[in-house]
Specification:
single chain; about 600 residues; alpha+beta; about 65% helix; globular
């Protein structure tokens, strides 16, 4: 346990460090060292990355089951991921996409197999009753790594730049590999590393490539070209179309496993796949952490650091600065430029950032948000055009001064840190002064911290009922967790209604409360899901079914990214989170409807409820 705990802790340190800043890096203007993408494009890339990261465990689990064994697969995956993290520190889009590919493939070998190895160890008769607890402890290791990584990321990217932060993720993965390689001499780990021979009802690997991967490539290519054939993407973008079309043969493959299985295996596999399908909404909400909630923390949450905290954070370079003077904070500054619009640039109004024209807003110096783009579509900088309160004159100046058809027209534009875009001018820092902020990624440590703090509480409550003969069923835990996850989205609805988010920030208490509520639900679903795979899968298919568990996360990650790519198009942001809340309630209802059947299968397979 301690070897796998430490290995997973360091691997998740690297993964969550990278994914915690990836969206921020993509939307950061070129002037600040980022990629200069808008929210929609960045969310699409992040969603695709998360989707593929959790899609590759399908093949990684299969190869480990039949050929590599779990230890060799874990080591291979760790090496590939470390190379990918270090590659992200290199400049250029080519380096970025190659590095993402290495991480995606590496995670496929690493992620399903370390979880399966733990399950195999706890398949011993004397350890089976402790399996749920073992996965909860293992899950705590994941969240310890996920907690500390964001502080490292904030320090490195604010003080030295994005590349150093990504490189730190690679260092974390190497530390995890060293721990694992040294620990592979442990007899329990050796006992759990068993290559399972193929059975007569199993599909040979050659047929899997022919019946699954080749069709997935073909259907993915069909999805990629749907826009050119029907005039528009089916799922919002060509990357979404390619991904969801490619998933179809893989889903058919898993259904085929169920249909071909013998009577003994069919019950467990059927219950497992039904549970997977019902839990996808949970993972959609979970992956908002890397997309919509990151946008919310970065642009809509009051991140002003209290003075007492500044005294502690400043000496260790844990303060993010925002100023109107480019010389004081070159990584995160805002500054004025006399931008002459040339033929290879365009300056357009950002219609998604509304300006309230009420009397209150007029008093707060309304401004129009502007974006300056290079000829290749990259965002050079966010801008604010300082408008006047008179609506008639405002309309005239908007059409005359901000016009992408007038090259050579000079325009005074403030290249502005996104944090200031929905704050009135009288709340901006004065020239020569700096605003001390909490870095956006620090808020992503709220979820793992809550997990660590809540794990002993949740386990204590469950133990309290068990000691009194009142066992809480696995299905009961999952359905309760789904409802709680939905309530976390409902909290964001109330956050949005608490103020006018286009001219003001919301309290960080809303975001922290959302993470706390969700974390309680997460503890009742995620580790239990890992445990159910180990309980209900035929031994020879455990890693492959662990890949199916991550396939659900993959699809949910893509759906999450697809939703977030429409963030700017949601005029009422509360509708965004209301969709998630209602979906969670529907999913919980489906699980409850299946509860008797699922509980009966779990009891038959394990002797436990």
């Amino acid at each position: 346990m301690y070897v796998l705990f430490m290995t997973e802790m360091w691997e998740r340190f690297g993964y969550y460090l990278m994914v915690g800043i990836f969206f921020l890096y993509l939307v950061d203007p070129l002037l600040h060292g980022g990629k200069g993408l808008d929210n929609g494009a960045a969310a699409d890339i992040v969603g695709s990355y998360i989707a593929l990261v959790y899609l590759t465990p399908f093949i990684g689990g299969l190869l480990a089951d039949r050929f590599l064994g779990y230890r060799r697969a874990i080591i291979l995956g760790g090496i590939l991921m470390a190379c990918g993290y270090f590659g992200l520190a290199l400049p250029g889009n080519m380096a970025m996409f190659i590095s993402l590919g290495l991480i995606i493939v590496g995670n496929g070998f690493f992620k399903p197999n370390i979880s399966t190895l733990l399950g195999n160890i706890y398949n011993a008769e004397d350890l089976k009753p402790k399996k749920d607890v073992a996965y909860n402890i293992f899950y705590m290791g994941i969240n310890i790594g996920a907690f500390f990584c964001n502080f490292v990321a904030a320090y490195l990217r604010n003080k030295y730049g994005w590349g150093y932060a990504f490189a730190a993720a690679g260092v974390g993965m190497i530390v995890g590999l060293i721990v694992f390689i040294i620990g592979t001499k442990n007899e329990d780990i050796k006992r759990g590393d068993v290559v399972k021979p193929i059975q007569k009802e199993d599909m040979p690997l050659s047929k899997i490539f022919g019946y699954v991967f080749v069709p997935a490539i073909i259907t993915g290519a069909l999805g990629w070209n749907m826009k050119s054939w029907i005039g528009h993407p089916v799922f919002g973008s060509i990357t979404n179309d390619a991904f969801f079309f490619a998933c179809v043969p893989i889903i058919i493959f898993y259904v085929g496993i169920l249909l071909r299985s013998n009577k003994e295996d069919k019950k467990g596999l059927g219950a497992l796949l039904a549970f997977f399908a019902a839990s996808i909404v949970f993972w959609v909400i979970y992956n908002q952490n890397s997309t919509a909630l990151t946008i919310w923390a970065d642009q809509y949450t009051n991140r002003k650091m209290p003075e007492a905290m500044v005294k502690i954070a400043k000496p260790v370079d844990m303060v993010q600065y925002v100023s109107l003077d480019s010389s004081t904070a070159p990584m995160v500054d805002s500054h004025f430029v006399q931008q002459s619009i040339t033929k290879d640039m365009k300056c357009v109004l950002d219609s998604t950032m509304k300006t309230d024209t009420t009397a209150k807003a007029n008093k707060l110096y309304p401004v129009y948000n502007v974006k300056i783009y290079a000829s290749n579509g990259s965002l050079i900088g966010h801008g604010v055009y300082d408008a006047v309160a008179d609506k008639k004159k405002l309309k005239e100046e908007r059409s005359d001064a901000v016009n992408d058809t007038k090259p050579g027209n000079p325009l005074n534009v403030m290249v502005l840190n996104p944090y200031l875009q929905n704050l009135p001018k009288d709340q901006w820092p004065k020239s020569g002064e700096k605003e001390n902020l909490i870095s956006t990624e620090i808020y992503q440590s709220a979820n793992p911290l809550d997990i660590v703090l809540l794990t002993p509480i949740i386990l204590g409550i469950i133990g309290f009922f068990i000691a009194r003969g009142k066992h809480i069923s696995t299905v009961g835990k999952v359905s309760t967790g789904m409802v709680i996850a939905g309530l976390s989205s409902l909290t964001m609805v109330f956050a949005i209604k608490s103020t006018n988010i286009y001219v003001d920030k919301t309290s960080m208490g809303w975001l922290l409360g959302t993470y706390a509520i969700f974390s309680a639900g997460e503890l009742l679903i995620s580790p239990i899901g890992l445990s159910m795979v180990s309980k209900l899968s035929p031994p020879r298919l455990t890693a492959l079914m662990m890949g199916a568990w991550f396939l659900i996360n993959s699809m949910a990650g893509k759906i999450s990214g697809m939703m977030a790519s429409f963030w700017d198009k949601f005029e009422n942001k509360d509708n965004y989170f209301m969709i998630l809340f209602v979906s969670a309630l529907v999913s919980a209802g489906i699980i409850i409807a299946m509860s008797k059947w699922l509980s009966a299968v779990v009891k038959e397979k394990t002797g436990l409820k």
